[in-house]
């Protein structure tokens, strides 16, 4: 496809995204400032106004949305990368002088008398970036906390010596948004920087499935095999997506063996421990367990603070976001790091549009709207005990006391459970507030409630009701 023609696809792609794929506000925030720069060899280069903007577009997966839409439109696979185009903001200009951000990342202005994309000078490639790796998914950008320190240590060891450590394969598992993809790609980025000759493949498992199916359909299985069995570092994301895909599992099994036998490094991510994969080839499952399996846990309050600070550092909003606001976000968004980032980006995006100072009030409103959390930063254990005792009609003294009748232990366990969930107190501190009990008693109580939640469907509405009362 010729260069010039491709702009037509780009325009149509943007139009379709706007009309069918995302809501208007989101489009306004992240698509309006994208510009078509060039197209060659199935690769499209798009200009963004700043590094922050670019990172946002990528971390929101909009690069993938663009690629997918272009594929639908053109019928062929097209990759997209972003460059910071010439319309930089003043802030960035200043920053550049102060911090000496390398000017190679900035595209020289287009000559005024010739606007055809072909005539655009191609900027020198100084930043080594692999087409399948996100440049911001590095170890430098990965905040270490006690939820992930072991995993990060292992990942670094692997990146230093791919295929040579006993951590082969390396499998990272954990819930959504906890940093699996980031950590996996950090390995890829480090290996690639150390040696850009390394053949790295980093893809979602879904892509592996699709390409495999496609190779059968077009009778090009050999190409497929050659492609995947000859890499030095295979990073395969979200292998749980292979559940139920027997033929692809079989193919991966052979790919695995071919690579493993030649000491090529394999890294996988999964949303659960591999032992819990269902409809999965046992031989393949056992291969996953040969090397090292690590899990990523949700970050603690302190780690959430550190992550938010790190993300803010990477923006131009250092001065606008107070510690109070940071703490507020960390307190209220506890689920995972993706949500944490989304909250922060909402706030930054909002302040960008309305050009107003970021106050705790505006943050409360924004978070309430988008995450439906109750911005209650200070729930006390005393309040929880009071509400629970009223609800079950037992005395607060009993809740804090030592009686072990069912009538009292159940409300006590509920109160401990809610204290752990709704406050930032440690189990030790919670134990103290419950008449000086040991932290293991609190942990045990929480465990009992968790177990019961899994089997007793009346419990969750009851807990919801209690939370509502606590927050009202
Ligand atoms: P997963 O693959 O587990 O769903 P991701 O790796 O996509 O999660 O992470 C979600 C977002 O959170 C990404 O933008 C990532 O950069 C960020 N993130 C995750 N863990 C960390 C961390 N420890 N430090 C900084 N950012 C993180
Ligand atoms: Mg992921």
Uncertain runs are 88-126, 372-376
**Element pattern in H and E:** HHEEHHEHHEHEHHEHEHEHHHHHHHHHH
Lateral strand order in the biggest sheet: 5-6-7-4-8
What structural class do the secondary elements suggest?
Answer: alpha/beta
Question: What is the distance, rounded to the nearest whole angstrom, between the alpha carbons of the first and last residues?
Answer: 61 Å
Report the mean per-residue pLDDT as an integer: 85
Tell me about the biggest sheet? 5 strands, parallel
The kinds of small molecule bound in this structure are:
adenosine-5'-diphosphate, magnesium ion
Q: How much of the sequence is in beta strands? A: 5-15%
Count the DSSP helices: 21
Radius of gyration: 26 Å
Number of strands: 8
Q: How much helix is in the residues?
A: 40-55%
Task: Give the CA-based shape.
Answer: globular
